[in-house]
Every structure is written in C-alpha cells, then in structure tokens.
Amino acid sequence: MIIRPREIIDILSKNGFIKKGDKVAEFGCGGGYFTILLAKQVGDIGKIYAIDILEDSIKETQELADLYEVNNIEYLISDIKNLPYEDNYFDLVFISNVLFQNEVYDKILESALRIVKEGGFVVVLEPNKKLPFLYGVPIPLDVVRTFFNVKNKKILFQKIFGDNYYLIVAEK
C-alpha cells in the first residue's frame, strides 16, 4: 500500500491534531506533497515551515507551492537535528519518511520534542518494513512507541496502513 497524503492530512484534521492557524514544522519536505496539503489545512493564518537538507527538495516544494498559489510556507535548508528554532515554538511537528534514512532517529525525535509546544503534537509517518523503492533501514513502530514512552509522552493515535507504513501521534 502506498500512502496517500490527502488521507493522512484528513486523519490529522478530523482528530484535531492540525487546525487553522497552527504553526507546523515539516521535517523532510521532499517534493512538497504534504507541504501543500498542510499549508491549505492551517489556512492563511497558519504557517508551514518546510525543512529539508537537500536544496533540490526545497526548490521542488517551492515550485509546487507557486503552482498552487500557496503563500504560507517558509523554507529552510537544514539538518533537522540542529534547527535554529526556539524551544516550544510549533503546534505540530510532522515527520514523514525521514527516520528510516537516518542512523540517529532518536536525535530527530529529540529535535521535534524540543521545538513543539507543551500540548503540541509530533506526528511520525514511516515505513514499517523494508520497501523495494526506498533505501535505508525502517524504524519499527515499536521502537518509536518506546521512544515516546521513555520520554513520558502520551501516544494519542496510531494507525497501520497495510503492513507497509504506520502513523503515530504523540503529545508533548
């Protein structure tokens, strides 16, 4: 099963995890599919901070935003483990298809917890197993759950898509 971005954003919206006016950090914006949907969901009074380590990904996301005339996005080329944002700044941190590409997934999750507000959410959407079209080592759902449990963060939502992907939402 391939993930459908609209379905993910609908789940987050219907469950109250993302709202109009939210400030959202997107770790690893890639081609911008989630970025555009997130930007539309938070509306003109909200803002998306699209972050990627690759300049080409940022450019691709900017082109897509221009095509769809979406203007509430700020872009940053950066390593997500060392972000310049202040602590407790964001309402939500959205992490999609990033952890499996990094050996130090826990540093990424720590970074997310640092910049999300108390009562804010960290959303993780990751492959649950090795997939032929992705490189890297998947971080299993149980490992991510354990990370949040050790940090005493409440897991509010969890869904498995087929056996290929999982979505988990933790509250800070």
Note the main attributes of this structure:
alpha/beta; Rossmann fold; 172 residues; 7 strands; seven-stranded mixed sheet; globular; 5 helices
Describe, in short, the structure shown.
The protein is 31% helix and 29% strand.
List the helices and strands and how they pair.
Elements: H1 5-14, E1 23-27, H2 33-42, E2 47-52, H3 55-67, E3 73-77, E4 90-96, H4 105-115, E5 116-127, H5 141-150, E6 154-161, E7 165-171
Parallel strand pairs: 1-2, 1-4, 2-3, 4-5
Antiparallel strand pairs: 5-7, 6-7
Helix pairs in contact: 1-2
Provide a descriptive summary of the structure in words.
The chain has one domain (5-171): Vaccinia Virus protein VP39 (Rossmann fold), CATH 3.40.50. The chain is built from 5 helices and 7 strands, in the order αβαβαββαβαββ. It has helices at residues 5-14, 33-42, 55-67, 105-115, 141-150; strands spanning 23-27, 47-52, 73-77, 90-96, 116-127, 154-161, 165-171. Strands 3-2-1-4-5-7-6 form a 7-stranded mixed sheet, with helices on both faces. The longest helix has 13 residues, at 55-67. The protein is globular and about 40 Å long.
